[in-house]
Amino acid sequence: MSVKKLHKNYNTFYYITFTCFQWQNLFEMTCLYDHIYQWFEILVKYGVFNCGYVVMPNHLHLLAYTINSEKAINNIIGTGKRFMAYEIVERLEKLERMDLLKIMSDAVNPSERQRNKKHEVFEDSMDCKEIVTEKFIRQKLNYMHKNPVSGKWKLVNHYLDYEYSSARFYDLGEKPRCSLFNYAEIISAVSPQ
């Protein structure tokens, strides 16, 4: 489901997915994981809390809780995608991937080019779904955490071996590599006593 409407609700959870341009493995190719973790830190300043994630080679799944009443989650994620896009382009230039940069540049439509966009780094659409039940939160976390071992991926033998995920935080209690908030603690904190 691509996002066509603004998701303005706050004090709620969202399940968010966005994908690199043409499903290219841009996160892996540019080793962008450190930059994505930095973005998770920035999200907190916007009142958006990372409650679970998996960074795949070419897409990202995020479970987020937002308290931001000023900006729609779509806009906050869009700003983050721009933050990542500039870094991906810079890293591709350092890797001398001019072939890929040309494809990404050629894909920019004329109206976006007039607004000074130079490269198409992400697919236009993103999935953003509000989550209202704890059961659905657990279902989405399970899906995200098992993504690296599912279907065509088989990136590791066991999902807990994949390092770019919140699975070890939830299943083993390990200290996270980035800002990460336990969804159950948020539910407990915001539920009327």
Q: What is the alpha-carbon Rg in Å?
A: 17 Å
- List low-pLDDT spans: none
From the coordinates shown, what is the CATH architecture? 2-Layer Sandwich
**Chain-averaged pLDDT:** 93
Number of strands: 4
Largest sheet: 4 strands, antiparallel
- What is the subunit organization of this protein? single chain
Overall structural class, as computed from helix and strand content, comes to alpha+beta
Q: Name the CATH homologous superfamily.
A: Transposase IS200-like
Shape: globular
Percent in helix: 40-55%
Number of domains: 1
Q: Walk across the major sheet and give the strand order.
A: 2-3-1-4
Count of DSSP-assigned helices = 8
CATH topology: Alpha-Beta Plaits
SSE order, one letter for each helix or strand: EHHEEHHHEHHH
Give an overview in words.
The protein is α+β, with helices and mostly antiparallel strands and 193 residues long. It has one domain: 2-Layer Sandwich (Alpha-Beta Plaits), CATH 3.30.70.1290. Helix content is 41%, strand content 18%. The chain contains eight helices and four strands. Helix 2 packs antiparallel against helix 3. The longest helix is centred in the middle third of the chain and has 22 residues. The protein starts with 11 loop residues before the first strand and ends with a helix.
